[in-house]
Hints:
The chain is an all-alpha fold. It has helices spanning 17-38, 44-51, 55-58, 60-83, 85-103, 109-137, 140-171, 174-195, 209-219, 223-251, 259-265, 270-286, 288-305, 311-343, 347-396. It has a single domain (7-396), classed as Growth Hormone, Chain: A (Up-down Bundle), CATH 1.20.1250.20. It has 15 helices and no strands. Helix 10 (223-251) runs antiparallel to helix 14 (311-343). The chain crosses the membrane at residues 21-47, 59-79, 86-105, 143-164, 176-203, 224-243, 255-279, 291-308, 314-337, 349-372, 378-396. Keywords: Cell membrane, Membrane, Transmembrane, Transmembrane helix, Transport.
Amino acid sequence: MDTKTQPAVLRHLRGTPGFRRITLALFASGLATFTTLYCVQALLPALSTQFGLSPAESSLAVSFGTAGLAVGVIPLTALSGVVGRTPMMTVSLFTAALLGIAQALSPSFTVLLVLRALQGLALAGLQATAMSYLSEEIDRRSLGYAMGLYIAGNGIGGMAGRLIGSLVLDLSNWRWALAVVGLVALGCAVVFRVAIVPSAFFVPSPPRVRHLAASVGRAFTDSGLLRLFACGFLLMGCFVTVYNYLGFRLLAPPFALSPVVVGLIFVVYLAGSVSSTVAGRLVDVLGRPRMLPVTAVLTLAGLVLMLSSNLVVVVVGLVITTGGFFAAHSVASGWVGPRSATLGVQGPAVYLFCYYLGSSVGGSVGGLAYGADGWRGVSYYAGAFVVAVLVLAFTLRKLPQARPR
């Protein structure tokens, strides 16, 4: 719908029915995305045993999914400008759910990796479009809160995927775990389709490859966006590394926990849902330049606590690390949209490319750190990433802040 012909249409403000429907739909989409994308983290030890893989090799099941997403996010952003935001997100969710169910039938680890890459590519259609949809349809005064709720869906999805995977694995095997997660994602896709509000401020545009390339290129010329892209890469590289190899650590001495208990520990992922929502509210009041350094410090503090050999302290550290990461991601991703809109560049798509590239590359390289020096190696590796984010966050405070619409 062209906004020039509909001047009376207003963007959705917090508390309105449209806002509630949009946030429910995007919450469900985030739930489906992270449930399917990261459920395999709980299955990595089982995959390692089944196929005779090292921890770093088994982590490719995560990396291939996020690599597919990273590769697809920019071209599918352009395609969403032709077919529309809501159709793109709907097809993305249903395709990813069906591919998730198909993974349960994988005859080999290679086939599983191919299906994971295709699933990541499908999810790119949702991830490439969701933030743009929110920026277009939500009033800027409520955008931080809406973005926080969307990230909260990601947090609960990450928890649900790991928890469901662990519980089903304890009762059966990794194949049934993947099948059940795929069915959960299919249910989320149905909820999304029923709840989503059609775009009112989306203006279709023909595919223009040169224009897209120029828009992406200009995104790299803004020093503020460059730093935010780096933050996304570093944050996700840290976070995925922690969750990729935490299961291996907790299954081994001195903890020697059972797989189902390790899965229950992943409930702390809920901390991300709370922190991202709170961060979204605080951003609307305090501003992003003040919030990003605080969230980075919280993440770093959690990593320090996780060095302990006391299980309670490790879990507390995991809660803080998880909460700090999701809050930081909520602040950084929410910052990219308005700044990109002001500059007229493809900022959100590039941010997501860097973010999921951090998951794919950072998580796999983190396996080398784990293989070389165990959990201490992971801690130093992940901690260095967060320190870099903290430095970038302080430099971002000195930049002139672009004003959204």
